[in-house]
Design a protein that fits this description.
Largest sheet: 5 strands, parallel
Structural class: alpha/beta
Number of helices: 20
Strand content: 15-25%
Shape: globular
Helix content: 40-55%
Length: about 475
């Protein structure tokens, strides 16, 4: 039985457009491990490819080249270098009938073994032959995102500006997760799907390991907490597969895990002890490219820049880096706990303070990962917006806003996020807290924009004497749009 293909409409349309163009294309598909890059490409091209090869993890240069030419008709070919191997590919393609010729090279970073000069061979193939034609469609992908970005997308050598298109494949959204589970016979509610997302992060491979005969908590225990679970060691495997010298990347996310709203570059350096040089920027960029972190400008800094009418786009020294990957957050918040050694830890703690604390923080990240869905539900998808987390003071009280949407129509949505299994009941304390936040925001930033207090509550808001301060409500269902 064929595995059903879920979502990815935007990426499918883009690939089809690139493949139907009247020119040669160099297409790079990249993204974190297990996100479905190969599955997407295979779904689009089917059997319509002239040549396919896949790198072999841990193989030598000789083994990689032998594997590379094994798919060519000339079985007597014995190239010793990558230049020769790509020349063999050119000779084969030149013999094919007229029409587009799709070349799919999977796990391409693994082919670039030490001192193999693989990049030279690829450069020569594209620059001196393929790019001069109008029928070559070269598609490459791989899990080592840092290699893809540094050697192809941001190449400073012979492949500089040679990539014609790039597709960054992200994890599933909540909507796509719901489609996946429905297509595979799961009867999970939206709340259960959300809790799965808050652990797994919408990574298709992780979802494929779920069993419909088990609850979400049972699946999490079996996959993550069982010592023999298929994802028990995934945290280390994930980072080591994506990044060279992954220890530095892991040090950065470890530091960011201690501060929910993020750290500045200097604060990360202070926490990790990493040197302040060009490599730290590369680490931040690679983590951001994989969707593990986001970089955002503090609201006050953004305001000041807007007032000075400076529209520069470079990263500011006080920009904040925030850890937003659900799986990584779950690892630090739950799996790395000293008491999380029981194979049934997650099932046993479904009604504990551990779960309630985690779910509250994770729901905030769920919302941050669905900014577009929030904007659609608020009816502002066509309005230019900037998204912030904010912390400030009115001189007496420190206030923190988890999600602040600054809109070009002179409105700010001040968003509160609450996760619970029943409609959230506002208290007098909640009302006072919101009023203090509004007061602190106005006094600290001197904004003259209208402020709309917005509640994103998983099960909605119970109407009572304190709920009148909420001007707009969204529920968990709105995040599935």
């Amino acid at each position: 039985m064929a595995v059903p293909f879920i979502g990815r409409e935007k990426e499918i349309n883009a690939l089809n457009d690139f493949l139907s163009s009247g020119m040669s294309e160099f297409i790079v598909v990249y993204g974190r491990r297990r996100v479905g890059k190969t599955f997407l490409i295979q779904h689009v091209i089917g059997e319509d490819y002239a040549y396919y090869a896949a790198g072999i993890h841990g193989a030598t240069m000789k083994e990689q080249i032998k594997n590379f030419v094994s798919g060519l008709p000339d079985k007597n070919a014995r190239p010793k270098t990558w230049l020769e191997a790509f020349r063999n590919l050119e000779q084969y393609l030149e013999q094919l009938p007229e029409g587009r010729k799709i070349i799919f090279i999977d796990e391409i970073p693994w082919m670039d073994t030490q001192r193999s000069k693989f990049i030279y061979g690829l450069e020569h193939f594209w620059n001196s032959w393929a790019s001069w034609r109008d029928d070559i469609k070269l598609i490459v992908c791989g899990s080592a995102t840092s290699w893809i970005v540094n050697n192809l997308i941001n190449s400073r050598g012979g492949l500089h500006n040679r990539v014609t298109h790039q597709i960054r494949l992200k994890p599933f959204t909540l909507r796509e997760c719901k489609l996946y589970f429905a297509e595979n016979g799961f009867r999970f509610s939206e709340r259960q799907i959300a809790e799965c997302y808050m652990v797994m992060g919408g990574v298709p491979y992780y979802l494929s390991k779920m069993k419909k005969s088990e609850s979400v908590a049972q699946n999490v225990d079996r996959l993550l907490f069982d010592k023999d679970g298929e994802l028990h060691g995934e945290f280390n495997n994930l980072y080591n597969s994506l990044f060279k010298n992954a220890g530095n990347h892991m040090a950065v996310v470890t530091a960011l895990a201690t501060k929910g709203k993020g750290l500045t570059r200097q604060e990360v350096l202070d926490e990790t002890g990493l040197p302040d040089n060009g490599k730290i920027k590369q680490i931040f960029d690679e983590l951001e490219n994989c969707g593990f972190i986001r970089c955002y400008e503090p609201f006050r800094t953004y305001q000041n820049r807007q007032r000075r009418k400076r529209n520069t786009t470079h990263r500011f020294t006080n920009s904040l880096y925030q850890l937003v990957d659900p799986f990584t957050l779950f690892y630090f918040q739950i799996m790395s706990r000293p008491d999380a050694r029981d194979d049934h830890f997650w099932t046993k703690n479904q009604n504990s303070h551990i779960f309630s604390t985690w779910s509250g923080l994770s729901f905030e990240m769920l919302c941050l990962n669905h900014e577009e869905e929030i904007k659609i539900s608020l009816g502002i998808s066509g309005i230019s917006c900037n998204i912030f987390s904010w912390i400030g003071s009115n001189g007496q009280n420190v206030a923190q806003i988890d999600l602040l949407i600054d809109r070009s129509d002179n409105v700010i949505n001040l968003c509160e996020m609450k996760y619970s299994s029943i409609p959230y009941r506002m208290s007098e304390k909640d009302e006072i807290s919101i009023e203090r936040k509004i007061d602190a925001l106005i006094q600290s930033t001197h904004t003259d924009k209208s402020i709309i207090v917005t509640m994103i509550a998983a099960k909605g808001l119970e109407n009572n004497e304190y709920s009148g301060c909420i001007q707009k409500q969204l529920t968990l269902s709105d995040l599935f749009k």
